[in-house]
């Protein structure tokens, strides 16, 4: 791209490849300096035959090279005059410069052009960028490098892609080329550019039509809207519009709700038995079920602006492991007659759905008695082959621990506990798993190894060795999962770490060597073990999620990139062979022709 009287304009989409840019740099600044360009921007000032005095700024991101050439007024006049046979002057020592938003510092005394917003334009820079498959910016966008945007009026920008301003600068100021384009925003040719990155665009507002304003009907409309749009949660907050969580993102709807409106919507649905709990504790949890809207898990609490309600949408159909995108081998753990299965991950990442899928497998394939203890009951399991008894904390039992204590006298084969929250519940769960029952539960822990440590650390030091012995012999499976946006941004996909019980794992737990579990996972594929990094890489390779998305969930993003792209982390970019004299002359001629276009 060049900047002339009308701002930045593309002149040749296929102008220079990365190798050609490197060879052009070699011709202007020498082989050593051209090959040393890295992620730290560098600048030189040179006198090139036929081009005059040039300020050159270069930066490299992986295999992508960005070069900015600025010709001073004196250089432009010299270039217009007949070229002499003098050899190019030796380049000055490179001067490190912040590449965006700060004045460039030249190594020579002569004034240099500062090609950034907010500074009067002195000369015309050229942005030379390596071409990539799919257009000039495809490769850069994948690496998060700003890319010059073609000035198509009203062309929408893409999520995550960097966009250079293609608009004329204000009052002669150069348009800054580093502002990031955001999903849902459109970059219009001729729009004003600013020297600082623009603020995030406002969240997309989803209009909602009210069927009626009668009390109770507004909430029904909102709940129906949340379910029909595929939202996972609905938030009602005093002073804010209703918010839907779609593919992990909270999106506002309609207009802000007054505190009185929120109270009118929430207070009537709180069960009478829980109203004193709301007054005492400031928060209550319960299930809301109706034939019209379906089933929801509800939390109502008090906060600064008034009441707040959170509605978790519970699907009408019980999910399967396949529909959740989880490995089918997880179901093998349900064939055990005793032991412990733990599902882990942050809140809101699908643990309850996975738990329901496992219970449904037992319900379809066995004649066991399955007893569940939940707070509240979320998925209601229909009658199939198994006998399902579902108990709710606060309604049919006082606490998880008391329900577990009584459950041992109810002849259960499988006990399902909604969450292992405290030491007493964990103690009763371990006891149940050792007395001929299969116990399935969830915890809010970040990984399989940390789940084991958490189970042990809940107990005082005097009891921890006994807990290790119980886990070493009774642990059957740990699944740690995360939900992340899909490639199209319209849904969520799951990545799962799977740690199966084995003799090797039991030995590590018993000997207090859980820090060696990652090493076991590296070599335990034959045992059915799946590392979280392998699951993330599979999502990226299959196109279900983008590489940048999965890297955001990885402990070691470089490892994920290497697994997906096949490139060794930290590997140096490929350097082309030195340019010959003829190639150097051709590259300089091409750069000169670019500088001569569009009145640059």
Could you characterize what this model shows?
- This protein is α+β, with helices and mostly antiparallel strands.
- The chain folds into three domains: 2-199 and 590-599, no CATH class; 217-314, Beta-Lactamase, CATH 3.30.450.90; 321-540, P-loop containing nucleotide triphosphate hydrolases (Rossmann fold, 3-Layer(aba) Sandwich), CATH 3.40.50.
- It is built from 19 helices and 20 strands.
- It has a seven-stranded mixed sheet with strand order 16-15-17-18-14-19-20, with helices on both faces. It has a six-stranded antiparallel sheet with strand order 10-9-8-13-12-11. The chain has a five-stranded antiparallel sheet with strand order 6-3-4-5-7.
- The longest helix is centred in the middle third of the chain and has 15 residues, at 351-365.
CATH superfamily membership of the largest domain, which one? Answer: P-loop containing nucleotide triphosphate hydrolases
Low-confidence segments: 82-216
* pLDDT averaged residue by residue: 76
From the spread of the alpha carbons, the general shape counts as globular
Question: What's the short version?
Answer:
The protein is of the alpha+beta class and 600 residues long. The protein has helices at 18-29, 31-35, 73-80, 138-143, 217-228, 259-266, 275-281, 321-324, 351-365, 400-407, 423-434, 448-457, 461-474, 503-510, 517-523, 532-542, 547-551, 557-565, 581-595; strands at residues 2-4, 7-9, 42-48, 52-61, 64-71, 95-96, 125-129, 233-237, 243-246, 249-252, 283-290, 294-303, 306-314, 339-344, 369-374, 387-392, 414-417, 438-443, 475-485, 492-500. The radius of gyration is 31 Å and the shape is globular.
């Amino acid at each position: 791209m060049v900047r002339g009287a009308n701002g930045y304009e593309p002149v040749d989409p296929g102008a220079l490849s990365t190798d050609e840019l490197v060879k052009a740099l070699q011709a202007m600044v020498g082989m050593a300096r051209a090959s040393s360009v890295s992620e730290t921007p560098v600048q030189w000032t040179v006198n090139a035959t036929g081009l005059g005095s040039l300020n050159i700024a270069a930066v490299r991101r992986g295999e992508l090279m960005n070069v900015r050439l600025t010709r001073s007024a004196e250089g432009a006049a010299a270039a217009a005059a007949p070229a002499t046979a003098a050899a190019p002057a030796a380049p000055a020592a490179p001067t490190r410069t912040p590449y965006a938003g700060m004045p460039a510092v030249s190594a020579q005394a002569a004034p240099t052009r500062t090609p950034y917003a907010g500074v009067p334009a002195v000369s015309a820079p050229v942005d030379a960028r390596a071409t990539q498959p799919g257009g000039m910016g495809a490769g850069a966008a994948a690496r998060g490098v700003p890319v010059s945007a073609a000035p198509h009026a009203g062309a929408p920008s893409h999520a995550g892609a960097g966009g250079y301003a293609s608009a004329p600068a204000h009052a002669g100021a150069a348009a800054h080329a580093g502002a990031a384009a955001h999903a849902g925003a459109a970059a219009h040719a001729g729009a004003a550019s600013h020297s600082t990155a623009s603020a995030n665009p406002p969240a997309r507002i989803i209009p909602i039509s009210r069927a009626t304003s009668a009390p109770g009907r507004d909430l029904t409309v909102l709940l129906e809207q949340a379910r029909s749009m595929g939202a996972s949660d609905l938030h009602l907050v005093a002073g804010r519009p209703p918010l839907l969580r779609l593919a992990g993102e909270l999106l506002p709807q309609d207009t802000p709700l007054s505190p009185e409106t929120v109270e009118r919507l929430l207070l009537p649905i709180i069960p009478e038995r829980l109203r004193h709990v709301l007054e005492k504790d400031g928060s209550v949890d319960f299930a809301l079920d109706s034939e019209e809207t379906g089933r929801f898990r509800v939390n109502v609490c008090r906060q600064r602006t008034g009441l707040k309600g959170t509605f978790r949408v519970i699907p009408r159909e019980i999910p399967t492991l396949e529909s959740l995108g989880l490995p089918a081998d997880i179901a093998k753990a349900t064939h055990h007659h005793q032991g412990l299965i733990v599902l882990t991950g942050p809140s809101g990442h699908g643990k309850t759905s996975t738990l329901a899928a496992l219970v449904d497998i037992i319900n379809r394939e066995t004649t066991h008695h399955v007893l569940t203890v939940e707070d509240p009951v979320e998925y209601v399991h229909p009658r199939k082959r198994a006998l399902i008894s579902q108990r709710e904390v606060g309604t049919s039992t006082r606490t998880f621990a008391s329900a577990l204590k009584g459950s041992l006298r109810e002849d259960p084969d499988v006990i399902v506990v909604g969450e292992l929250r405290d030491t007493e519940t964990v103690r009763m769960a371990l006891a149940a798993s050792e007395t001929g029952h299969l116990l399935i539960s969830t915890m809010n822990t970040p990984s399989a190894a940390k789940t084991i440590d958490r189970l042990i650390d809940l107990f005082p030091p005097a009891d921890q060795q006994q807990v290790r012995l119980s886990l070493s012999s009774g642990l059957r499976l740990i699944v740690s999962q995360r939900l992340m946006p899909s490639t199209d941004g319209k849904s969520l996909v799951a990545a799962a770490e799977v740690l199966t019980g084995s003799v090797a794992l039991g030995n590590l737990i018993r000997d207090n060597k859980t820090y060696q579990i990652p090493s076991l996972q590296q070599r335990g594929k034959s045992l059915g073990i799946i590392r979280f990094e392998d699951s993330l890489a599979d999502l990226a390779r299959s196109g279900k999620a983008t590489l940048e998305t999965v890297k955001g969930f990885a402990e070691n993003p470089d490892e994920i990139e290497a697994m997906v792209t096949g490139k060794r982390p930290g590997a140096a970019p490929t350097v082309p062979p030195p340019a010959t004299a003829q190639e150097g002359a051709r590259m300089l001629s091409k750069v000169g022709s670019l500088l001569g276009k569009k009145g640059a």
